[in-house]
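Dear all,

This email documents one entry for the complex benchmark we are building for the journal club exercise. For each entry we list the sequence lines for every component of the assembly. Then comes the predicted three-dimensional structure of the complex as a token string, followed by one or two observations. Please use this as the template for your own entries, and keep the labels exactly as they appear.
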Amino acid sequence: MEFYRRNYIEGLFLSSGVVRNPDYTMERLTAIVRDLRTIHRFNGYIHLKAIPGASQELLNEAGRWADRMSVNIEIPKEESLKALAPEKDHQSVFQPMRLIQTGVLENKEERKKFRHAPRFVPAGQSTQMIVGATGETDQDILQMSSSLYKQPSMRRVYYSGYISVNTYDKRLPILKQPPLVRENRLYQADWLLRFYHFNVDEIVDDAHSHLDLDIDPKLGWALRHPEYFPVDINRDDYERILRVPGIGTKSAWLIVNSRRFNHITSYHLKKMGVVMKKAKYFITCGELTSTFSQPIVGINELHPERLRPLLASKSQQRRAAQEQQLTLDFKETE
Amino acid sequence: MLVYTFDHTLDGVLSAVFDAYFRHQSPDMLIGDGDQLPLFCDEVWEVITTDEKATRVWKGMEKHMSREALRLISISWLSEEKELSTPLFHYIYKVFQQTGGNQCSIERNFSDPDVLYVTNTARRVAHEQLRMKQFIRFQKRQGRNLSGCSVAR
């Protein structure tokens, strides 16, 4: 509270391990939130971690005071969860989620009719998954995320890399460092699902069930589907332009808005902030050549296998070069 | 090359637009009073800033542009950048040049370098404002971390 009064923080995050049983813990959490709001007059953002298995009344009560509630699905697959923690199950997680969702939707309806109806979890809900603790593929994780995002009240899914703490438990892997690159790629794929209108089957499918660690998911999709390109910047619609690697939502919006006035050339694209190094292979602006795009070398002229090493980062290029180079072992002869 | 000079205020820019249309001229650059003139300028005209000119231009802009675009223009001026004056001047000049039949005002034409520059500057100012708010929460005072001044929230 001191921090809040001194303007350090604008919000806080309230979480707890299970003490005794879920309902007891939930009751104590609810009491804390209620006190914060009423007695201490904390008006900042409160993110409450709900305990799986809590009852409906407690969730309703907590929802009146908190801004966002989360219930963590730690492990995407039910079997792995049972192997690690037999007393937990997915149902105890999905049940509170559903309750929160119905609460949010009912509250929205009520607030349409009555202006001063009390709010229930205005910021929606989120959840978290642990990456790297058990053997799921990225496909399982992303399919779970995608089905969660179809729910209207789910705002975000967080992915947390597994940090190995104990060595004596045989069920958990011993990792030297948490899987940061994999976590990063998962977040990129998550962004694709939410903002770039991708379907989860396009990012990962049975043949490629793990995300590529070397290149980002959007570029991976583009290299697998060269028949989709080249995208004509001046004619194609917003969805198609979004799919080009190197063009983000902001650049796509700028392009679509400027098309009414002018023919867009690669000079304009560069000024708008498109990453021409990646995008030039996938788009066509209706010009022969310019300083920013090579004479027509699209992805269909330059095959994906040859394009991929060009677009890899410097460190990866060095690594690939090292692997190709044979090393001679000069040993001291006796 | 035709150069207008103004007094480093937003009202000055608006008065410059007024003068340009009044004298039926189309200047190439807009420079502040004390600044260095470019190499090949033939004519230099000094803009007198008056409230009346500025308000007339601003009211005219309100008719042609959305509120968002007006807000972006004011915010971009807060960046206090010297190089902003010429693109901003050209942007406002073009607002009045567009024909009435166009359904979309020029504020959305990001292929125009002036519009793009002004919009990007406004975006950078907005980011800076957020950073500033986050930053002045923690100010080192006498070696301890205390919050800074009382920020109106």
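Observations: The interface with chain B takes residues 6-8, 254-255, 257-258, 260-262, 264, 268, 271-272 of chain A (CB under 8 Å). The mean pLDDT of chain A is 81.
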